[in-house]
Amino acid sequence: MDFVLVHGTTQSPAGWGRVAKLLTAAGHRPIAVDLLTPAGLQFEGYVQHARDQYDGERPVVVAHSGAGVLLPAIAEALDARAMVWVAAYIPDFAGGRSLRDEAPALLEPDWIGVDPAADPAKASEFLFHDCDPETERLALDSLRLFDPAVLASHPAGAAPEIPSTVIVSTRDRTLRPDWMRRAARERLGVTAIEIDAGHCPHMSRPAEISGILTGSRRSA
Question: Which intervals hold domain AB hydrolase-1 (predicted)?
Fold first, then answer.
């Protein structure tokens, strides 16, 4: 099976490295797309940019954090068989609000305004606090700010018909876990899988994430 891995707004594709190795070892093909593009690209351009980096059929598309804004559109463009939201923002399909509109309710207050790419100490505090020292070093090396205004301001479209799995990190210091649980139920109609991790479980709990992706664990 193919897995298209979409990085969030604070990491490069390197953040998926450990999960990708585990998926490969299990006989799957992971493709970590890179969303870094020229300035001024519109929403549809990011979707096409991800599409251009994949040459297979019917993958599982996995997104982290702010890339949840793009996940439904990328999944539809790739005719995905499933979507997986890893500590990822779930858009307001019914109300049409943007990530920026929902930020006050979604984000932990102390995270607002933090640029982890410019402050490794803040990155460790908010993103990688549950990582062991070696993992933390790798995670810090993967930092890269990717925060185009078009993603924050893009209004949500219609709810996708593609099946979803939602992974909520119970020790997330950036996105509020209670908000994420509720959004999974109300916006996608699923019960989230909860794991004991911070905002980047693909770094701190790669085996657990890989197990969920390959079906070793499934949402209720």
Answer: 3-209
